[in-house]
Each structure stands twice: as C-alpha cells, then as structure tokens.
Specification:
Largest sheet: 8 strands, mixed
Order of helices and strands: HHHHEHEHEEHEHHEHHEE
Mean pLDDT: 95
CATH class: Alpha Beta
Strand content: 15-25%
Distance between the termini: 37 Å
Shape: globular
Structural class: alpha/beta
Radius of gyration: 19 Å
Number of strands: 8
CATH topology: Rossmann fold
Oligomer: single chain
Low-confidence stretches: none
CATH architecture: 3-Layer(aba) Sandwich
CATH superfamily: Vaccinia Virus protein VP39
Length: about 280
C-alpha cells in the first residue's frame, strides 16, 4: 500500500509521485480492468513492437496494475519481466494478479525510473504503455533506461498523440469546461501529451543513446464503459476535478454535457471514442 515503504524520488517527479501514490493511483488500482480494456486495441501492437523472445529480461516502465508485464512474462517464459511504477497501490494489485495467475517470472517494484539504480546492461527489452510521458526530466529518465538495457536492447513505447488527434480528450474536456478556458500544459510538460511531438520525442531518445528510432501512428477506439451510467462514473473518477470551482448551475450543465457526449458515443461495443497514439521503437546503441 502507498506510504508503507520509503521510495527515493527525484525532485522533478515529486508532484507525479504524490498523484500516482495517492488518490489518482488508488482510482486506477480500483478500476484496473476498465483501464486495461480502455486501451485494449493497442495492446498487441505494443507487445509486438517489443519483439520479446523466450529468455528475455523485460522492464515495463509505468506498469500500473501489470497487464503488460504479465503478458511480457508469458512470452519471455524462462526469462523475466519487472514492472515498475510510482504507485504503491497499483503495484500491490499487480503482484496479487500475477500470483493468482501463477506467473513466478513477473515481479513488481515501486520506484522512480528516472533515478532508480537498475543493474547496468541487464534488460533485453524496455516497454511502456502510456507510462513515459510523466517524467520530470525525460533526458535523465531515458538515459537511465538506456543504461539498464544491453547494447542492442529494444525500446517499445506507446504514447498519446496530441489532443487534436484524440477525440476522447477534446470531447470530455469540452463537456466539462462549461465555457471556461482551461489552462493548456506547456509543450513537453509532464502529462498525457508530453511526447506528442514526434520530432521532440525522437530527439530526447537520440540524446539518450538510442538509434533506429521509428514512430508509427496508430488509431483505435478507446473504451470508457459498457453503458452510459458506467462510463459517466468512470470518466468522473478521472476528470471530476474539472468540476471544482463551478457553481451549482454550472456543475449541473457540465454533468448534462458529459452525459450528452457519452450517449452520443454509445456503440454496440460500449462507450467508445476515437484515439490516436505513437508507437515508438528504438534500439540501445
């Protein structure tokens, strides 16, 4: 559970650590299956990009509740997968599920990837599903990841393209803004879209010693719930903070707007919005 062990955190990641080892991480831990299903359309592409082989040692960065780590461990077979995350609650869930599945070669550790002393040249593959956009110092983080990889080691990342390519964030933020101009994070600032600029993302990786950098654009539906009510609760659990500061009328309007856009995206597969990511491949030189 969060707060039970001391974790060294780089000062630039202190805010992220408070969020992911606090209420935000707790919500993700409690809704693990929903978050996994939300991005299920990208799962096989990401694992394929890692080109994991039997016997490989795999590092899963920002592993959350461990779905990618578990499937990487299955492919690696007599190898191993280590999932790392800032969230104690998500790590606890990941460990529990791996034990339930009998995956002795999947392990999990709460740590700050940016500064954690991984064994040098130890891993064959580093992989991450929307987990590398939150580094306070991306250059330092990817340099540390590079040190942990063997020469020729493979890097596979799934990151979000910008809001203009992601219907889900435009629609949901638009519904809850109620005419307000919400602040836009600075380019490259820690957050979901920190690696949305492909040239900037590639430059950071190149500076950290990665070569053969390739970015492939992918588009898949993003799932938010089986029906309107379920999606409404799931989305408010993530974005309910946007209601802060609204008066009663504005709050009612925001909730009505949200329910309206959710209903408009009700499909035979549940509530789905279009999304877009970059699948990034690179090699440790």
């Amino acid at each position: 559970m969060s707060g039970t062990t001391v974790m060294q955190v780089d000062p630039t990641n202190a805010e992220q650590a408070r969020a992911w080892d606090g209420d935000e991480g707790a919500f993700w831990a409690a809704n693990a299956r929903a978050f996994d299903r939300a991005v299920d359309g990208y799962h096989d592409s990401l694992l394929g990009a890692g080109a994991i082989r039997p016997g490989d040692r795999v590092l899963d960065i920002g592993c959350g509740t461990g779905q990618v780590s578990r499937d990487a461990a299955r492919v690696a077979r007599d190898g191993e997968a280590l999932g790392v995350d800032l969230s104690g609650e998500m790590i606890a869930v990941a460990r529990r599920i791996a034990a339930e599945h009998g995956l002795a070669n999947a392990s999990f550790q709460r740590c700050d990837v940016q500064i954690h002393p991984f064994p040098a040249a130890f891993f064959d593959v580093a992989i991450s599903r929307t987990g590398t956009m939150f580094f306070g110092d991306p250059a330092a983080a990817f340099a540390n990841i590079g040190r942990a990889l063997k020469r020729g080691g493979r890097l596979a990342l799934l990151v979000w393209q910008g809001p203009e390519a992601n219907e889900w964030i435009r629609e949901l933020i638009g519904a809850l803004s109620v005419g307000r101009d919400l602040p836009v994070p600075a380019a490259g600032a820690p957050g979901p879209f920190a690696q949305a600029d492909p040239q900037a993302a590639a430059a950071v990786l190149a500076a950290a010693g990665f070569t053969r950098i390739d970015l492939q654009g992918l588009q898949e539906p993003m799932w938010f719930g089986s029906d309107v009510g379920e999606a409404h609760r799931f989305i408010l659990g993530q974005l309910g903070w946007l209601l802060r500061g609204l008066n009663a009328d504005q709050r009612d309007q925001a909730l009505e707007n949200l329910r309206g856009t959710i209903a408009a995206h009700d499909t035979s597969d549940g509530i789905c919005y279009q999304s877009a990511t970059w699948l990034i491949r690179a090699t440790r030189s």
